[in-house]
Give the backbone structure.
Amino acid sequence: MKKKITLKQIARELEVSISTVSKALKNSKEISRDTTEKIQAFAKLYHYKPNNIALSLKNRRTKNIGVIIPDIVHHFFTTVFRGIEKYADTRGYNVIACVSDESFEKEVINMEMLANGSIDGFIMALSAETQRKNDFHHLMEILDQGMPLVLFDRVTDEVICDKVVINDFESAYMATKKLIEDGRKRIALITTESYLNVSEKRAQGYCNALKDHGLELDKNLILRLPYQFEDEKKSEAFFASTNMDAVLCVNEIFAVRAMRIAQANGKKIPEDISFIGFTDGIISKLANPALTSIAQHGERMGNVAAKMLIEKIEQDDEIEQEEATYKTEVIEATLIERESTIN
Amino acid sequence: MKKKITLKQIARELEVSISTVSKALKNSKEISRDTTEKIQAFAKLYHYKPNNIALSLKNRRTKNIGVIIPDIVHHFFTTVFRGIEKYADTRGYNVIACVSDESFEKEVINMEMLANGSIDGFIMALSAETQRKNDFHHLMEILDQGMPLVLFDRVTDEVICDKVVINDFESAYMATKKLIEDGRKRIALITTESYLNVSEKRAQGYCNALKDHGLELDKNLILRLPYQFEDEKKSEAFFASTNMDAVLCVNEIFAVRAMRIAQANGKKIPEDISFIGFTDGIISKLANPALTSIAQHGERMGNVAAKMLIEKIEQDDEIEQEEATYKTEVIEATLIERESTIN
DNA sequence: TTGTAGGCGTTATCAG
DNA sequence: CTGATAACGCCTACAA
């Protein structure tokens, strides 16, 4: 077993100084051809690679970016993560992944761990609990330390930083409008509890679309479900007691579950009732019938977020805090039509 | 904006030496009550936290573990990842995630990046291409440097290290046996191309079960699909040309796609034909009909892998390379019966 | 009780 | 052309 070799060892072995070795390996023209070759050969032989940690310490730059997401077993976040990872990779950055598990405390702890030098910047989506509590002091602190931060999807107006979101309002509006134009009159909405601002925006898009098209907003047509749930009773009761001919769901899982219940009640999809869900993941594609859904383009979101972050990181040096300028990128969601709506 | 404060700055500010500060913050009894209090108060005020990078350099220990998986948008790997992350978190470790995208080259590059000091050990599943090429020199090198490595799921006998796998052979055997006992006679297998050793073991379990129960192995009943594919033609042709009353699939996506085709052909599930898939993910649960599947307990796998790795990391100090001993943990898969098989 | 010095691995500056 | 020195931030054995 040969532990990683260091400059010092090479230097000792070859009886030259450390700095000569360092320069030779960088092809510095200060060093003679001879020694350079000798040193490089030796280094290659022993698979010399500079130690990242030492470099980080010296450069005050880790080439790591921290990503905190609420849940890794969630198709959308996973997709964003992939986008981040892919872009980061092209720029030579590693991704340190932490999961907040929708918990405020875990979010805070993870941020603190990473903020102590492990990374050059954050990309994150707020945990449900953080949104519920409306407490963002940990984000403020990070920003205060001059560490770049990009928020995506689950964002908040209370923190001033770079953001990437989709046009939730507009896309829900569009989807609802499509249902109306298909001739649907009683359009239900299945959403989460109200503290998730993404859901809230989608709900608003739904409401406005109804209003603008002369349909009355019927509260009985709105079902609010806990974000993570196993129990279908509430949904079953909803379908049993409510008359509807279309359903908009704020995510694909709600949609597929709802479809199953409707089918069990003898409804035909899309003849009797159409469905549209948010998050165009594999579940939508493989559903039976395949679900019409609103693609959030998570991978692109991740790409954009990573790009924004790395730009901030790398410009930070130059501008050195003149007056940071923040922007919010909006990714346009698109409707993917499948079997669960009338074509 | 206040950049992170360092020991040196505190020392200068308070006009004491760096080491006094360091000791005071550690409550060393060498330092007088007075100075200790003064220093601690000051440190708290400025949110002092030791710099991880400096600690890593000093301790030659990063408290990071590197995870390389072939694909992050994949329910099983995601689940394992969560298990790793959760356990790592309890032990104060961060997880650096890299995705090989099923590519040998990306796997090698990622490993090299991380191996240069960024992490204390690896957890990984081999990329498809690596398994196909049967080239493991990069793993050997890592081990040679004394860096702990735990392989999970996609493992190989050619590398001697810690491993976590499920009992692929046995569980495929069991599942096939169940189908036989349900009275099925013509049981198909839908699997991947042969270089994925996991699929191969499952296929063997299937074959042996047939043999042991007096059923002949019919090659026409085996369909090999590319690992990632969009095109259903091959599957459609298979279902059109082949007569079968049950199907075992090496993953849930194959299974759900196959079910759709069978249904489109007018088959009733499970009356005319039953389905069992591997990977008990959300897709199985939400399928219509819900898919009977073999749970691989990814989260537990991740847990176990992380535990094995961290143990190795932390014992490495003490034992300092006496004679490393490696083990392979087997996680027992379990059959979750749902609507796609006869109860 | 406090401070000094050396080292973790690297690079950059300056001197020889 | 080569080497000594300082610095990145922290810790610790050893002086004072």
In short: The longest strand of chain B covers residues 64-69. The two ends of chain B are 65 Å apart (CA to CA).
